[in-house]
Amino acid sequence: MVNIVFRVDSSVQIGTGHLMRCLTLADVLRAKKTTVSFICRELPGNLCDFIERKGFGTYRLPFITAHDDNQNPGYTQWLGVGWKEDAEQIKAILVKEDKAIDWLIIDHYALDRQWETMLRPYVKKMMVIDDLANRNHNCDLLLDQNLYENMETRYKGLVPEHCQILLGPKYALLRSEFREERRNLRQRDGNVQRILIFFGGSDPTNETSKALEALRLLNRPDIAVDVVIGASNTHANEVEALASNIPDTICHFHVENMAELMALADLSIGAGGTATWERCCVGLPSLVITIAENQRDIAENLAQNGSIINLGWYESIKESDINSTLENFLANPDRIRQMSLKGMQLVDADGTNKVAETVEEISTK
Q1: What's the pTM?
Q2: 364 pLDDT exceeds 90?
């Protein structure tokens, strides 16, 4: 039996998207009679308990609150410790495993070739899930599920020659429920009767409240609103209070039926993270506010493609901006309908199976 270990973290700072897409792939791999476990650091707002409830073995790395890596700012801060210390802790876990590690799958912006090379002797194959193309990797398989103009050359010189690279939304890691919803999807006519608000698992800048205030200003009691509040959202009380003042508005907490909610909605307001591909899959048109640097280029490319409306960087977006865009958009159902079709053309809901099959194929080589 193939033995696979994921190295991924979730936190208020990192969000939950990296973990969720890894869990999506893990579910499919487990269904193929593969042993799957996770190694995660217990950062503030982590979802280690959730991973265990999903039935996956979870190795927990300690979080040291005093750690401060001033010499390596940016994404390296996400790790919570220095990369060498992290690698040593991982090595200790892998050595204790009572069977060989066939794959180590890494989804972490703070890790690169140095870390991967240090752990190479303890695993047969390595896979990296990335969105940035900003550092070197020592891996056998790399996945970047995003849409970029320079997609085919993004990782040139950053990975070994033998590394197989999977690029683009056709490899988007989506749960099986999205395939089911897409199969039974109603025809979208561009008229908006239901709006979905979701800004990821943590929403650190509280864009959810901003979107709700915009809907309050819109004053359309004929439009129902679903608000999804993620498990790591620290603004939940404020969001609930705002939602209670808007007619026909329901708050949902850490949902398991996101595909259903997206299929029911006619329009979405959300961030530019991993949920982008979920929305495209079920043809849900969206107004996107970018809340992380790695979302900017993706949102711009999707807007040029006609798959979303890119409102821009969160710091420059006010409630009134969302409100005015909504008013113009709602008055143009044909544009909404076309946007739905454009999104569905990008994502076919079978990306997770394609990635899992590639892992299987490389395992046999």
Answers
A1: 0.90
A2: no
